[in-house]
Amino acid sequence: MEPPASTLKTIGKADVQEDYHGSYRFAPIEEAQVSRYFDTMYERAVSDVVIVGAGSAGLSCAYSLATRRPDLKVTIIEANVAPGGGAWLGGQLMTAMVIRKPADNFLREIGVPYEDEGNFVVVKHAALFTSTLLSRVLALPNVVLMNATSVEDLIVRTDFENKERVSGVVTNWTLVALNHDTQSCMDPCTITAPVVVSTTGHDGPMGAFSAKRLISMGLNKELGNMRGLDMNRSEPAIVNGTREVVPGLVMAGMELAEHDGSNRMGPTFGGMIGSGIKAAHEAIRMLDA
Ligand code: 48N
């Protein structure tokens, strides 16, 4: 989209200069040239895959999907201003992040250093994993992140066999989504996509969003409700259980524990990585079917 015509009569020669003795000069700009977000919303109104939630599972899915299939328009919707979900800390006030083998393969793939402690590896700070993964994902040309944006509903259509199929998401600014009962409804936007991957986690003001919405719209009977902590049982269950839970919707990460009623694992993140990668494989299977 062409930038708006210049409203300034003359714009000085762009004699840019990086100088720290009082003569620093920037190239000139029109204020209107800064408003770019709406281009993104328009360009991504139809995406190939929408990933709801930019936590460790959602970001692992985005990286695996967008690198395997650079032809796909992958759009991530994240309710918080800061993406990353619960992966900024290894656990309550613990900074290091434990990742059980074989999920360490992914760390080498994206270039996160770690200490090898036998059955698992330790990343010295969880923020090192999350910031590295975020930077790798956002550097991919076919990935767009819309943060401070909430999915507040699912688009559901009937397919040619008259089966209900999730076909996209309904979005709004998070501040609006959190305040619908304090003002008249501010209508949302939509993003249609043949595949939606929901990784909205298990807690927080909007956690387990799709797991709960499937019930309130009658596409699922009841929540499985996440069970108690058991690291050895939970991580394979989450990875192996990652799947298309209803036509058009793949569920992964801790949201799946709410949907299926599988155990939680606490501050070990290999299951999130594996579940995200499995979700990427599921999304490709669905698109190629
Ligand atoms: O990090 P989370 O919460 O979710 P996961 O599944 O990626 O990772 C979970 C992991 O951090 C754990 O909880 C660890 C393993 N602990 C387990 C345990 O036993 O305690 O990320 C979910 C993201 C967040 O950033 C939310 O802001 C976002 O999803 N989100 C949404 N984004 C858009 N629209 C929504 N409706 C929405 N709901 C949540």
From TrEMBL:
What Enzyme Commission number(s) appear in the record?
A: 2.4.2.60
Catalyses: [ADP-thiazole synthase]-L-cysteine + glycine + NAD(+) = [ADP-thiazole synthase]-dehydroalanine + ADP-5-ethyl-4-methylthiazole-2-carboxylate + nicotinamide + 3 H2O + 2 H(+)
Q: Which Gene3D superfamilies match?
A: FAD/NAD(P)-binding domain
Q: Which UniProt keywords apply?
A: Cytoplasm, Iron, Metal-binding, NAD, Nucleus, Thiamine biosynthesis, Transferase
Q: Which domain of life is it from?
A: Eukaryota
Note describing how the cofactor binds:
Binds 1 Fe cation per subunit.
By its UniProt entry, which InterPro entries does this protein fall under? Answer: FAD/NAD-bd_sf, Sti35, Thi4_fam
Positions where 2,3-didehydroalanine (Cys) occurs in the chain: 185
Cofactors (names): Fe cation
Which post-translational modifications are recorded for this protein? During the catalytic reaction, a sulfide is transferred from Cys-185 to a reaction intermediate, generating a dehydroalanine residue.
Please tell me which top-level EC class this enzyme sits in. Answer: transferase
Q: For this UniProt entry, what is the primary localization, expressed as one broad class?
A: cytoplasm
Q: Which family does it belong to?
A: Belongs to the THI4 family.
Per its UniProt record, what PANTHER family does this chain match? THIAMINE THIAZOLE SYNTHASE
- Per its database record, what is this protein's job? Involved in biosynthesis of the thiamine precursor thiazole. Catalyzes the conversion of NAD and glycine to adenosine diphosphate 5-(2-hydroxyethyl)-4-methylthiazole-2-carboxylic acid (ADT), an adenylated thiazole intermediate. The reaction includes an iron-dependent sulfide transfer from a conserved cysteine residue of the protein to a thiazole intermediate. The enzyme can only undergo a single turnover, which suggests it is a suicide enzyme. May have additional roles in adaptation to various stress conditions and in DNA damage tolerance.
Subunit structure, briefly? Answer: Homooctamer.
What is the name attached to this protein's record? Thiamine thiazole synthase
Species for this entry? Mycena chlorophos (Agaric fungus)
| Lineage per the UniProt record | Eukaryota, Fungi, Dikarya, Basidiomycota, Agaricomycotina
